[in-house]
Amino acid sequence: MPTGFEEKRKIFLGYRKMREKKSSFTPLGDRLHLLFDGGKIEHLFRDVCSKDPLHFPDYQKTLVQLKLKTNANDALITGVGSVDGIRAAAAQLDKHFLMGSMSSAVGERLTQLVEYADKKKLPLIIISASGGARMQEGMYSLFQMAKTSVAVQRFKDHGGLYISVLTHPTTGGVSASFAMLGDIILAEPGALIGFAGPRVIEQTIGEKLPKGFQSAEFQQEHGFVDAIVPKEEMKTAIAKLLRLHGYKGGPA
Amino acid sequence: MKAYERVRLARDKDRPKIGAYIDALFTDFFELKGDRLGGEDPAILGGIAFFEGQPVTVIGHRKGSDLKENLTCRFGMPEPEGYRKALRLMKEAEKFHRPVITFIDTPGAYPGKSAEEHGQSRAIAENLAEMSALKTPIISVVTGEGSSGGALAIGVADRIWMLENAVYSVLSPEGFASILWKDSARAEEAADVMHMTAGELYEEGLVDRVIPEDKGGIQADFDLSIRAIRSALKTELAELQELSQEDLVSLRYQKYRHFEGELEPDYADFNWDAIELKELEEALKEVVSHES
Q1: Fold designation for B3-291
Q2: How far apart (Å, rounded) are the C-alpha atoms in residues B17 and B141?
Q3: pLDDT > 90 in chain A, percent
Q4: How is chain B split into domains, by residue range?
Q5: A41-78 residue pLDDT tens
Q6: Cβ contact, residue pair B156, A146, below 8 Å
Q7: What CATH number has the domain bearing residue A181?
Q8: Which residues of B touch A139 (CB under 8 A)?
Q9: What is the pLDDT of residues B148-180, one digit of tens each?
Q10: Contact at CB, B125 and A4, closer than 8 angstroms
Q11: E strand residue ranges, chain A
């Protein structure tokens, strides 16, 4: 055990306690609370954390501050719960933690959840909001695109149902991997969904993009989204889809 | 050599393009075009050829060798049609039990209007997913710049190799600097911290083999690198072709399953070594005082 390890840990926990008393954490995973009956989520894999593979300047500082602010270890909240009495595995990639960017921890937690759903034969729901790759983790982040796609594909090959929910914004490496691989793809109204960001596209083509370009509605018009559902109605829609796939709720 | 010097070499306009590799390594190359969904994208080149007497499917980014071709190929930045053509050719390779060899050299997927309208995200995602389960060996060689999802979309492979002066990264160093530091001029500095060179990625286990280049760069002795690729292809293809389809796919799954930076298992812990005690206190104090 390196010197100072325990000391630093104690300091962190001390500050967390102080914060618990003083103010509330920025809660992550609001869509999961809306989705699960009674807002109840049984957290899974929350202890998987990214280190700092590139020793990137200030990355540790940013992470430790965000952990203190949100009381979460990374941008992805994973767990199981009931949707209208139907057991389901679900995850939410939350933009309030480094823009929901894909770190090693996000990729690993997501993969563990997909494998868990596969093993337990649970339907899988992933709600995304993300700017894409976690730059501070370099190639490790890029390879999470492959890792998560590979896991989702295997889950689908085994007969599992995967519902992907796109919220504002879902772009880059997340939209170009697991988020676009749902058997069913739902989106919230007005959400920005695309591969390249609008500014990058405008710089490349040298013109302004029309209003509504890359919106959820645009994506539906082009055939990439099954239905647009407001967040208040998402639970009802998902429960209906689960029943249409033969899932039945147990006793409430 | 500084990382950014390698970025320059990787992008050098005189660096051999995919055509040169095909001519040097294969015979009887037959180009196949079109995604069968209404599009043909020249930024991806694909076809069938013989490698040492056995048919293989060859797919790669085409940057173009003169300005006119550069423009038609958008400097090797594919549209969704290109990725869908690549996938169609891979599925055909699977059907006819041909190994797939891909050559990666791209600044990224094309960030254009029609690319978005035609589903760039979905096209890339589908390739990642389908390549992971393709029942035939795949070997990817990064020959120049491998940048972002646009590179990875033909790069999910059983073996990932890089030319000594090739680079492979989550984004171009210019894009990286512009996102993190709001200053694309700091690209050289970005290249240093990004771990994007063949040597670094090999050490980290993200790349399986580094193909040597002449001290003066690959142009000085193309044949040296070609000999290395040919001999590696011979050995490794033979090895991969001995595996059952089931083992092949399962080993590929395991390979990607375990791509991650080091992870820390305990809830409130992470790499405490990486942060100084003083820095930690200040960082935490900042959060708390900000709110009181």
Answers
A1: 2-enoyl-CoA Hydratase; Chain A, domain 1 (3.90.226)
A2: 12
A3: 77
A4: 3-291
A5: 999 988 787 878 888 888 988 998 998 898 888 999 99
A6: yes
A7: 3.90.226.10
A8: 168-170, 194-196, 201, 204, 206
A9: 999 999 999 999 999 999 999 999 999 999 999
A10: no
A11: 42-43, 49-50, 76-83, 86-93, 124-130, 162-171, 184-187, 193-194, 227-228
